[in-house]
Protein 1
Amino acid sequence: MDKLLNDVKAYLHEILGVVGVDDEWVTLWAGASQLPFYLQELYSFSQVELLGNPCLLMICRDINSESPAIVRKHWGTVSNCYSGDVIYVVGGVSSYNRKRLIEQCVPFLVPGNQMYLPMLGIDLREHFKQRKKQDKQDLSAAAQVLVLRELLGRGTGSLPAKELACLLGYSAMTLTRAINELVGRGVATAEIVGREKRLKFSSNGHHLWEKSKSYMNTPVKKHVLIAEHDYHHLIDCAEAKVAGESALAGYTMMGDPKNLVMAVNASEWPGIKKMMGIEERDGLDFDCIKIELWRYNPAVIADGALVDPLSLWLSLEHANNERIEIARDELLEKTWSKWWR
């Protein structure tokens, strides 16, 4: 965080000439303690004067920042509590999200790349670097399942490892490796209770989500198409769940897509096809169902006909569609409200 603040200082000095190298240029904002706890976790807050105007830097703590629509809501909440101008500061942002931040009218600053401060009459667009993802290895499917079940209150940490492996359909070795992954990343610890190993997460709720989100990836490995008349055969297998835009429509106000989307465990798909006599189709027609083949069984996390909301959010991360992005933001807000607040 200190490095990002120093980068901001150097950038402002280089471009505006308003910050001296040795100046005591920022002060902590005491009002931060009155903000909702989740905002205090996501951002740090420093006051600075720019061109005679008091400003508050809302500094993103995580390189994997929230979507522009969510940032806009956070910025609005902070602005209602601060008498001056609030500036969102982030170390990196994609060109697509940069455009959306401007459309959302959020003043922001990316050190070394861009400064959009409309209240000061500044819209400086320099060379723009594509954000580089942190060099972090994604969690395995089993490890991601463990985290998601914990986040959604499925009682992952309360069971002995052997029982948990049986419940989730993994071998004892696979589950042990998943636990070791989480322990190695500081997300959880492994406790020995009697002769049993149990998984214990080091945090919960929103804090666990922020800590583990950068390690998680879309559950979708591949998409296939089947005829609509095979729908009932698919439901008979009991493990298929409504997914993609169809599930998003179920969770939010977004309309249903033209083609139903379902999720199935990729490792079970060949057997399901053979047993049910299902044939894949080559082209997407109105009488098709889109099948997402997932890295893990959606049924071990889902509670009902729809895939779980967090796996769904991850599966649509690269949709690059504003309508879907808005619905994803709504989905995450609802998840916060239900489980994490």
Protein 2
Amino acid sequence: KQKALRSPWVIGWISLFVIFVIANIIMIYLAADRPGLVVDDYYERGQDYEENMLKRMAKDPGWKMKIDAPEFVDVGKPATFNFSVIDKSGVPIEPDSVTFYAYRPADARQDFSQVMTKIEPGKYQADITFPLLGVWDILVAVKQGEDEYTEDYRLSAGVK
């Protein structure tokens, strides 16, 4: 009866099972520790998604928005981000507000925002310091009255 426990096949299958269980315990622990980017009212927001997208597309003014990010963004050091917005005919737009949002896909607790400063009509600027190394999702929101329009960008802070 002890001969079966000495067989390399039985030892191999038991080892695979133990590795599988340990790997799953580690993954469950890591998943519980990372909050991610989930909104609290995801169901309510998703119910009228198609209708809201059609409304948003109908109201689209056709503005051309551009985020100018530095080639390299270092962690803990300010980096200057520029943003420009013009209408269909190339005339600079002067919206009510322009806000820079930085989202950390791995940890929503690190998200932050900053109002961008107007440097001339249609051009805005902000000095941003990223606290952590890695991937950040950038969103610049332009608010004009009740309407909000966004431009997105993804960067890796501290990575050349």
Protein 3
Amino acid sequence: MKTIFTLTFLFSVCFMMSAQTTVTEQVSIGPGYNQHTYYNLEDGSTLSYDHTIWDIAFGVEGQSFSVFVNEGVGSSMSGALPEVALFEALDTDFATVDTAGMLRIYNDEVSWAEGAFNHVKVDGDPLDLGWGSYDPRSNQVNSTRLFIIKLRTDEFKKLEIQSLISGVYTFRYADLDGSNEVTETIVKADFAGKSLAYYSFEKGEAQDLEPDSWDMVFTRYTTPLSAGPGVTIDYLLTGVLSGVGVDVVQADGVQPLSVDHEDYVNDYSDTLTIIGHDWKSFDLGTFQWTLPMDRVYFVKTAAGAIWQIRFIDFEGSSTGVSTLEKTFLAQTTSLNNTYEYAESVDLFPNPAHDELHIAYDLKSKVSQATLQIVNPLGQTISTRVIDNTEGFHVLDLNVSHLPAGVYHASLQFGNDHLSKTFSIK
């Protein structure tokens, strides 16, 4: 059989599309910026929640120990709206702690691995996790600091993240005088596949709020900005934070229709605020929002899809609507020339018309194999689970219903993940 493709790349392969489709979409965080909105690049889906639905959030991925405070609050022309405020307490005795000398703290919006409760750690001490200290002998994190939290009701609570043991957070809170003490647990396993578990003091319960798949969140957060020489003020801003496993690079002074993302392959960052808030600015002369038309962002999703994004409009607090253009550029996959299962993978004919044949040779049986077809918009349009034995196999796919364009066939055999490009004429 003639080999149409060979897997010869040592580190990574990036399949560029010969034809690209740009889609315009709108994402809203509501009038007055009152919502926190998750956005999925592949299908353009969004999921919105009012800022008031949660107060603190716990990292539930793997070995995560992050704890965040909800900085989201709407905008009002008539005065400040109620917000959640977190403070580090000076006292380390839960029975006697009060508001004396407390210092307000914020999330640093750098990584989903650290929130405000972690931000107070001592730099240079790898065992200090902020709210607690890690004991390598027991593999446990136990409390070392206390906090004061002011809720949107203006109530103050004293709060202690007591421990993280075997994937279970235990925390307690009470009124400042010690009354109404509550102890809660959050079990990471109850939030499989999610990055954060959200807790509401009003509801007294943990909540699963994240969609199953998201790449960015449009929201409100606080960040320090310069207010003059030597002066820094914490500002509440409207912006975009990238999701877990998402990398972003900002390209300025470019022609959006001709810029090549391959010129920026070494500049990606997982910092949450690469998109951030400064893709828009308010012109006090015209009282309008302005956007740089020579700026684009390249976004690499956790699944390895590369998108180009350009913001083209922002309607401000009247609607909270942002308008963006997105273009699916490529699907990347890390390939290593040593595979546990796959000997070779080929597909033919290419271009295809009515049928596509995918041939592969397995050197050992794999319990579960998956084939996905990704369209020119980056959307997964077909998923097929394959039962395999070792040896040579050919899959016959009917592609007569697919419109002309460039597609990707993504195959996963155990830990082997391979991607092939084909076109439909």
Protein 4
Amino acid sequence: MRLCSHCVSHRTQGLWLKAAALLLLSVSLAACAAPTAAPASGSCTLALAPDTGDENAITAVIDAEGQLVVAQKIDELMALWADGGSVTNAKNTPDAVDDDQYWRDKDAIRHRYVRTVFPGAAGQAAPADLQITLEGERATVIATTHIGTEISPAGDRWTLIKQGNCWLLENLTYNLEPRP
């Protein structure tokens, strides 16, 4: 059976209309779907009680960083860091920034953990004597370094930022204690 050109055109037009209707339906359904939540980060990755105060959440983030270094869990470590974060080695000359070494942004921080920190296989990395200063959505923490047998009073300075309800690491400056 052969269709006339008018019938072929009519049938083609009908197929196009059905395809367009299906496309519109799929776009509409996608728009109605629940948005995917952003992955948890910082203190929000930790199992903290909802009423945990800022200082406790900040302490938990810094403690988690040390525990995750020992466990060498890089993905969990990186979830503690804010985009644009940095690590600075003050090289025991806290007043001279010209000799500092920097790791800027998450890729460089990840590289530092994997290539520099993890090979040392620290059995313990627990900052102590935390002195927390809160300034709105930002916190500065001075801590004594405890990595293995190394103890350096006031050797670390952490800065954290609050995004939503989550505290994230923004910077770690270490080796702040002056050389003897």
